[in-house]
Amino acid sequence: MTMIQKLAKPFGLELLAQLQQGGSSPTPQTLNKIISSCATSTSLDLGIRLHAVVIKLGFCSNIYICSALVDMYGKCGSLANAQKQFDEMSDRNVVTWNSLISGYLQAELPKRAIGLFLELLKVGVVPTPFSLSGALVGCSQLEAEELGAQVHGLSLKTGLCYNVVVGTGLIDMYSKCCGVNDSRRVFNQMPERNVITWTSMVTGYAQNGQSDEAMILAREMLRLAQTFGIIAGKFIAG
Known about the structure:
Layout: H1 3-20, H2 28-41, H3 44-57, H4 63-75, H5 79-88, H6 94-106, H7 110-122, H8 129-142, H9 145-158, H10 164-176, H11 180-189, E1 192-194, H12 195-207, H13 211-228, E2 234-236
Helix pairs in contact: 1-2, 1-3, 2-3, 2-4, 3-4, 4-5, 4-6, 5-6, 6-7, 6-8, 7-8, 8-9, 8-10, 9-10, 10-11, 10-12, 11-12, 12-13
């Protein structure tokens, strides 16, 4: 059991005990927070018991709690329950969609994740950087460069192409689809890069047999880190 699990379980179990003793009911905000802690700690048993509390208290129509349940089931690897919760929701927001997409990606089911992303677009939900990043991870897992290029086009259309999360996803996708030159083009155009961005580009070169370029970029990353330091985990593009 991890330290997070050790900290999360007593809090949730205390709530359950309070409910069983007829104590005051928790607020939706409190329930949402505890369900999210179950997701972080992958405490599926406790999450299922909290889901029962949600039903008992009549919070089944609360979009935030239900989205947290989708996320919890996905992170705990219970995709059938995540999908069931998603399907039963009469109202969903983009966080709900992103949570289920993330769950499928974590389970290495990229086709399901991509299908869900396309459905998100079809019903008119406006994608966030995390929606696009999730789609790009799916394209990377499938090595589907053509589809990834279409997601790149969508990022340009929505103005999210220079977002650090989306940009890093594009670098990783193109690298894994043997388009490392396209990865470098995206890298060069990014106004802001974080450590993951730099690492993705270095790794992309290495995976595509360009070890010299990987070493040059790694040295440049270290030089910038030593010269300017890292502020909040970010490098400013130089």
